[in-house]
Amino acid sequence: MNVVNQPIVKHKLGLLNLAEELGNVSQACKIMGVSRDTFYRYQEAKATGGVEALLQKDRRRPNLKNRVDDAVEQTVLAYAIKQPAHGQVRVSNELRKRVTFVSPSGVRSIWLRHELANFKQRLIALEKHVAATGAVLTEAQVVTLEKKRDDDTYAVHKP
Hints:
2 domains, 8 helices, 0% strand
């Protein structure tokens, strides 16, 4: 879409053109319902950057998400693979013992970003990790996978 055809730019250009036609900035501003200060801002923007400068600028600062360091995130992900049965509070507490400080909600946020939010997703990630790397399962991981298989066999609902 052409910049000049956008409604906001049309209004600003209309104000500038009206002031030029009338030869009176105050009267043009009164007709258009705009302050003179705004008119001069538009005029300066057009003079410095052309018509493209009349596009509406976003004044809000970008919302930078509160994220943990990459090293902490990788530690949480590695722990999720190592101990998929642990919940977010226990992961936070265990990592705190290892001098990695992350809150339980921080653990959950990391898990959500990497699709590890629930127990089944962490088990699937463990199975993919073992298939990809050929890693040997620890005893805790084997017990967890067996527990999942037992749950799957008993989870059949009969009407």
